[in-house]
Amino acid sequence: MRRARIADMRIVLGVEAGRELVKLIESARRRVVAVTPFVSEVGLELLCRASSRGARVVLVTTPETAHSLRARAVECGIELLAIEGLHAKVYSVDGRVLTGSLNLTSGGLRSNIEILIDFGDSEEGRELEKAVEKLIELYAHRLSE
Description:
This protein has five helices and eight strands.
């Protein structure tokens, strides 16, 4: 397995991690993939705004979270997928890939002390995107139809 060089990554700590993810999703133009077990109304509205700007938005979450958000997600045009037992947190926005501890909740985006690793648009980030696609292929159930 290849290892990413630290110089290729950027690490964001503290409440800044949530702010960084918000800024990135707010700038999305083409595609957002959010893999996270917990999503609050704040996180869903962030994704809805990206969708309203024309970005294709895919949200992968737990069945419980997906069912609670389904009506609004479908209304916003978000592709909603569920994976039982999901704990991963990975975000891909227009080819820029990030992973870390934060969920798309009010606390995760605004006030929690989090860590976010930004792979940028690197080869390692693309490998992580491929792993997410495989995760979806193997485990996800589509709920937005």
